[in-house]
Model the fold of this input.
Amino acid sequence: MGKSFPDGFLWGGAIAANQCEGAYDEGGKGLSIQDVLPHGLKGPVTDAPTNDNMKLIGIDFYHRYKEDIKLFAEMGFRVFRTSIAWSRIFPNGDEETPNEAGLQFYDDLFDECHKYGIEPLVTISHYETPLHLARKYNGWANRQMIGFYERYVRTLFSRYGGKIKYWLTFNEINSVLHSPFMSGGICTPKEELSEQELYQAVHHELVASALATKLAHEMIPDAKVGCMILSMPVYPLTPNPDDVIASLQAEHKNDFFGDVHVRGRYPGYMLRYFRENGITLQIEPGDMEILKHTVDFVSFSYYMSVCGSVDPNQKAGPGNIIGGVPNPHLPASEWGWQIDPQGLRYTLNRYYDRYQKPLFIVENGLGAMDELILDENGEPTVQDDYRIQYINDHLVQVREAIEDGVPVMGYTAWGCIDLVSASSAELKKRYGFIYVDRHDDGSGTLNRYKKKSFHWYQNVIRTNGACLD
Ligand code: BGP
Done:
């Protein structure tokens, strides 16, 4: 038996509304950008929802959440991360009054979590901008988004202030630099979008995020607000100082977001980048004051690391939205994402050295092709030893980081129940401890089955991590 995790460590799992709920046109919901992205980042944006879009039904979480939360409770979850679909609350995004049916849905969902003593951790915006805001305003490229987002968060804080303690303002906020439509609802094709427009959109999101933090602190004094960063450590491919500086600069592109959220101002390296690339942000009076409302904790997703190199022959490999030069020392998943458990310890240490704030790992896991088989009792299951190995190895490194002195609030395994992939919109890329019988051709009963990892994770939580090896 290994060492236990600290008392009160928040064990749990994470999903996002658009990848699970389905019911894309029920309960007064408006369309979101995901409803016209049938193939995720790999395919075109369609004019209207199409039948090949797996997210329209998702895993039918909208209708089956009671069954699913019961299974999460059986695993012992203390926290459950999900997002609120903005277009359920404000179907178009720019109306004055919210949609009561949408508000009621989340009231019921959160009550169901509390029934089992599970603390919800809510992402306010997770790749699901209302489509109307994308089409009419060009998403976060437009400053008016700050006002729409403010109205949305005020609505959430006044309605759920008593029920939700942990809030995240934007999922993987740094991903907007790489996927402007999915992350920021920006319709201008990426090739035509100037850096000026892109960083202006980033400024709008950073102001909106700080405004949400300010409002949360005023409206729900007990609440804790975190930023959420797509973390991807960049190791120099060689000790060549040019590679080291190239890696530092690649890290800066991501660190910039956490730095503003924690320090409340733009870092010098970014001001230099703006200066040297002809970028002049339009900053309104008061913006810099708002940015000073800094977060209570830093949360992040961690799936993989990459390498930085100045060698033009080194080509970037696949990755979680952001790619990078592959590391010759690491294996990769079936989707080519390199597996690097120690990168998680490294990231936790690096963030704590930099921010001195509590950290929360809100996404980590292995997307893999699972095979449903019958166990000795004739029950369908999956022997997902590869997933157990992956999560075990990452959690061992979390424990190392805790031993290093890093305060880690919790760990929510990504896709604790199988869901639709964000990048490829496939269901066959499965992350769950719970198998969902649904397939990319639309077939399947939607029944839920416990994988081997379900029982394993239950034991991890029961022993507070002591069973990890
Ligand atoms: C992150 C997103 C998630 C999620 C995860 C796994 O980028 O925040 O929404 O899906 O990555 O990625 P994928 O679904 O592409 O495998």
About this structure: The longest helix spans residues 195-219. The first strand starts at residue 10 and ends at 14. The chain is about 35% helix and 15% strand. The two ends are 7 Å apart (CA to CA).
